[in-house]
Amino acid sequence: MKFIVGFAALFVSGLVVALSVGNEEKHRVSDDVVRAKRFELIDKKGRVRIEMRMDNDDPVLSFKDVNGRDRVIVFQRADATGMYIKDISGDNRVGLAQFPHGGGLAMHGENGKGSAVYVLMNDKARLDIYNQKGKLSDRWPSDKND
User: Fold this and answer.
1) What is the mean pLDDT of the chain?
2) Exposed/middle/buried for residue 82 (C-beta within 10 Å: 0-12, 13-18, 19+)
């Protein structure tokens, strides 16, 4: 009986090692490169704090708080590159983007109420101010100057 238990333990140990080595080699390109579809950086308590992943073949980098909520997201797509900074409630508070022919920076108030949006498009800059109801309240330069 001891022989069977010992053999079973040896077999399971060997299987675990074989699967680990096989999996490691599958993702290792060289001693300096590891390939995967997703990476997670965890803290001392095992919580994911940074995640790198692909989203429909586009790279995304997320920084998470201790509760696992996204707080900073950096993304790159064929048509745009950007970053969102979120508050503890998950609302976007700052957005930065580059897109064809321009880019922009948006800062939003609590619960998305009130915002200032700076846009540079086709070499023309504009600053839009939105009130607490989400209505455009001011624009510089004004449309009258276009």
Assistant:
1) 83
2) middle
